[in-house]
Write a structure and sequence with these properties.
Blueprint: E1 4-10, H1 14-23, E2 30-33, H2 48-53, E3 63-64, E4 70-71, E5 101-103, E6 106-108, H3 115-128, E7 131-132, H4 157-168, E8 174-175, E9 178-179, H5 211-219, E10 225-228, E11 231-238, E12 245-252, E13 255-266, H6 270-278, E14 304-312, E15 324-326, E16 342-345, H7 351-357, H8 364-373, E17 374-381, E18 390-393, E19 399-402, H9 408-424, E20 427-434, E21 470-472, H10 487-506
The structure holds flavin-adenine dinucleotide and iron/sulfur cluster.
Domain Glucose-methanol-choline oxidoreductase N-terminal: 187-303
Pfam families: GMC_oxred_C (PF05199), GMC_oxred_N (PF00732)
Family: Belongs to the GMC oxidoreductase family.
Length: 507
């Protein structure tokens, strides 16, 4: 095995997978190191007991709260990373999200790059992930240079009825922009069957455009791209000057091996990327690699997320429910002069899922009745970057997540607004579950990008300010997170960074 490569990418998730895909045609020798394996295709993929009760696809790692209490993080180590189980609702951040925005709890800081810098890459990302959507119906839609590659996924009758009722109330319900391989007019032509086990299940028929299907597998068609699975990167070593990564230490199927490359890209997800940098400190980098600013691990953001199960007398026989969103309150509410966030439908809550949300223990028959009559929503609002919200790692590699949610008032406002609308539509019972920090689905920040090395970790091309050949290309770079789902933006960013590499390679 050759141990030296042109480009070595650590983590085959959304960021790393996209970068490998975009750089594969350059002919450069690329090594992709992934700690997990391929997620098995098996009947359990679509089994709610396996997914919710057994948590079959989640890591059994323990992370820790600041008081030392362990928790089981909702992360998934596979080729494709967390996108193997994601909801596939891929959205552009709004133009205004790239500027400074006054929120209830403070300022969401401006990015050093504008929406215009990202726009061409959003268009490419939407093509790569086969996005379905309907342009022109969203009051917050940013300028777009191209239509969505595919038309919207239609609402089923009960959801269309709700969309019409919301429109009658002056709202602008939108079709969610979804990354599924489906042909609505000719369903036999593409694999997606619009099943009821999409979000947050793996896709048994490989129809969900996750990072494995959309990026890693196509990248592996090129001979110059090599993927090693079950390859856990434990440390990055610098040369004597401390300016270059000289070698990468890997536990490959339990054996220690080293690899080197001209360019090393860390793409382990925001928390694990921070961990790897922090645990790779040396004499030249006493506080961890790339950490002269002291910001590696800081500004950790999670969205404020709540599930809202709304029950009406009218049955809801919808199979594929995740088609509708409401963005009317993204920038302000009817009486709130500050941004609230976005509302979307989530995968249809089966009775097993409701078991976790029930305020008291309930018989299966009751849960089944509620599931058959509920419409299930997901409310997302912005979490602002805070220095004190951070990831720390001890000498044994134990991860501690210090995170206090902020900006929670707009979250409560948005849930109340949604409930008020739904009450008028005949819904009478509401169960809410606000996600705890342990959920870590939308982990963002920890290595923010910026022009000034004293207040950012990465430069505008996502290269570490402190090292010449180290890049971070995953969800770590966001200076602020907006309230849209993050993955399309980090995929667009990886395509942007790939263009930077290509121009360097030409040079
Ligand atoms: C249930 C669920 C639903 C979601 N729904 C949506 C949605 O609808 N829309 C949306 O935009 N986002 C969604 N997300 C979030 C989305 O999955 C993430 O934004 C995205 O995967 C982040 O990409 P990433 O590259 O930062 O990390 P990941 O995709 O997690 O990739 C990191 C990769 O690095 C590997 N790795 C980690 N450490 C190491 C190491 N030391 N050595 C080698 N490999 C390593 C991991 O195994 C993983 O493959 C969802 C997430 C979850 C869990
Ligand atoms: S809805 Fe389509 S993409 Fe989602 S799990 Fe079912 S078949 Fe796969």
């Amino acid at each position: 095995m050759h141990n030296h490569y042109d480009i070595l990418i650590i983590g085959a998730g959304a960021g790393g997978g996209t970068l490998a895909y975009a750089l594969a045609p350059t002919g450069k020798r690329i090594l992709l190191l992934e700690r997990g394996g391929y997620l098995p295709r098996e009947k359990s993929n679509w089994d709610p007991d396996a997914v919710f009760l057994e948590q079959r696809y989640r890591t059994d790692e323990q992370w820790y709260q600041p008081d030392g209490t362990p928790f089981s993080p909702e992360v998934h180590y596979f080729v494709g990373g967390n996108t193997k189980v994601y909801g596939a609702a891929l959205q552009r951040m709004r133009q205004e999200d790239f500027g400074a925005l006054q929120h209830y709890d403070g300022i969401s800081p401006a990015w050093p790059l504008s929406y215009a810098d990202f726009e061409p890459y959003y268009t490419q990302a939407e093509s790569l992930f086969k996005i379905h959507g309907q342009r022109g119906e969203d009051p917050t839609e940013p300028p777009m240079s191209a239509d969505y590659p595919y038309g919207p996924l239609a609402h089923e009758p009960r959801i269309q009825q709700i969309a019409d009722q919301l429109s009658d109330r002056g709202l602008h319900p939108v079709h969610l922009t979804l990354a599924l391989n489906r042909d609505e007019a000719h369903p036999e032509k593409r694999p997606c069957i619009r099943c009821d086990t999409c979000d947050p299940y793996p896709c048994l028929v490989d129809a969900k455009c996750d990072a494995q299907i959309a990026c890693v597998d196509p990248a592996r068609q090129y001979e110059n791209v090599q993927l090693l699975t079950h390859a856990l990167v434990t440390r990055l070593d610098t040369d004597a000057s401390g300016k270059r990564i000289e070698q990468v230490e890997v536990q490959l199927n339990g054996q220690l091996q080293t690899f080197s490359a001209e360019i090393v890209v860390v793409s382990c997800g925001a928390i694990n990327s921070a961990k790897l940098l922090l645990q790779s400190g040396n004499d030249k980098h006493p506080n961890g690699l790339a950490n002269s600013s002291g910001l590696v691990g800081r500004n950790l953001m999670f969205h404020n997320h709540s599930a809202l199960i709304a029950v009406a007398d009218e049955p809801n026989p919808t199979v594929f429910q995740k088609t509708l969103g409401i963005h009317d309150y993204y920038f302000k509410g009817p009486t709130q002069d500050y941004p609230l966030g976005q509302i979307q439908l989530t995968g249809k809550a089966k009775w097993q899922r409701l078991q976790h949300m029930a305020p008291v223990e309930m018989p299966e028959a009751t849960l089944r009745y509620l599931s058959a009559h509920s419409v299930d929503w997901w409310v997302t609002t912005e979490d602002l970057p805070r220095l004190e919200n951070q990831v720390t790692v001890d000498r044994q590699g134990k991860i501690t997540v210090h995170h206090q949610p902020n900006n929670t008032q707009p979250h409560a406002d948005l849930i109340h607004l949604l409930e008020d609308h739904l009450r008028d539509l005949g819904f009478f019972l509401f169960w809410r579950k606000t996600m705890k920090s342990a959920v870590v689905w939308h982990q963002i920040g920890t290595c923010v990008l910026g022009e000034d090395p004293s207040n950012s970790v990465l430069d505008l091309n996502c290269r570490a300010h402190d090292l010449d050949n180290l890049y971070v290309v995953d969800a770590s770079f966001f200076p602020s997170m907006g309230a849209m789902n993050p993955t399309l933006t980090l995929v667009a960013n990886a395509l942007r960074v790939a263009d930077h590499f290509k121009s360097q390679l030409k040079g």
